[in-house]
Amino acid sequence: MSAEAKSQSRLAMWLDHHAYSLVASLGRLLRKPWASLLTVGVMAVAIALPLGLWAALSNVERLAGTVQQSRQVGVFLKPEIAPGRARALADELRGRADVAAVELRTPEQGLAELRQAGGFGEALDAVGENPLPSLLRVTPRGDEALLAESLKALPEADLVQHDAAWRRRLDTWLRFGGRLAWVLAALLGLGALLVVGNTVRLDIQARREEIGVLQLLGASDGFIRRPFLYLGACYGLLAGALALALLSAAELALREPLAELARSYGSRFALQGFAPLQAGAVVLAAGLLGWLGAGLVAGHFLRQSRADAR
To answer: pLDDT (tens digit, 9 = 90+) per residue, 245-280?
Structure first.
């Protein structure tokens, strides 16, 4: 037999053993359905908790980013400023380098908004004359704090409202939440690693005699370890898929009530789940986690058995 034929034969045997190891691992899972479901369920919960926190933080961050008023600076003009001068001032501000956009709200528009908000109609009718001033909503291009300070110097400005303090606090909380999500992911990932490692360890103990025979026949450590690696990967892949299913169910349960709450505030915000690429990455990462846990346990057992044989 030529060298090329021998190489192809070894490759075919290697692929056959991988396929056999995968099928055998799935068979072991199906032969112990309740024990397998318990392992997968514990891993899924450990994976779903940090993922759920990360998804919640992503939605909160997206909500904060959609609220343009979080960066806008409100400039209330003096009551004696005529609408024509207010429009001219808006055009002047649009030409500034530190201003991205300017929206003018006239007293009539402000009065209409108050009437639409509900509950103010009778009070506004009692006032008679429109008491609202013109308002400029200025969107900064850079630092909104510096822009707000410069707008206070305008002779037409009566009050400059800058509500960015809450946004800075929100950003701080989001950074803290992101760090917390990573810490939980590390801790619970370690827990999932230990769960799959312990499950594979029990399977190895049950097949100790079979492994001993394979070692006497000269089987390599990679040959012996391979079925257990696939077993751990199967646990991880199933756990990742179950974690995504749990989070999807939670999203469906919360989507409509949250959308209704957002509509009551005039927002179209809706929960956003995992994109297909993100979901695939989660499942693959869970599979790698299971593979790693099984590899660590199987490698330790094989090293220990080799040392005992000496």
So the answer is: 999 888 888 888 877 776 765 567 677 778 889 889
Helix extents (H) in the chain: 3-31, 33-66, 83-94, 107-117, 121-127, 144-151, 165-206, 208-216, 221-264, 276-309
Cα–Cα nearest to 294, from 199, 222, 211: 199
- What amino acid occupies position 108? E
**Structure tokens given for 234:** 């199967």
For residue 162, give both structure tokens.
């800058």
Which tokens go with 220? 């390599």
Query: Which tens digit of pLDDT belongs to each residue from 122-165?
Result: 555 555 566 678 888 888 887 777 778 888 888 888 888 776 66
* Interatomic CA distance for residues 136 and 163, integer angstroms: 14
Identify the H or E element spanning 100. strand 99-105
Q: How far is CA 181 from CA 47, 55, 249, in A?
A: 11, 10, 20
CA dist., res. 96 & res. 89, Å (int): 11
**Residue 189: closest CA among 239, 146, 256:** 239
Contact between residue 145 and residue 99 where contact means Cβ atoms under 8 Å apart: no
Give buried/exposed letters for 148-185 (b at 16+ CB in 10 A, else e).
Answer: beebeebebbeebebebeeeeebeeeeeebeeebeebb
pTM: 0.64
CA dihedral 121, 125, 130, 134 (to 10 degrees): 0
Contact partners, residue 9, CB within 8 Å, separation at least 6 = 1
The DSSP output letter for 97 is: T
Q: Beta strands 73-77 and 157-162: pairing type?
A: antiparallel
Structural domains of the chain, ranges and CATH numbers in brackets: 14-66+168-309 (no CATH), 72-163 (3.30.70.3040)
Query: Residue type at 24?
Result: A
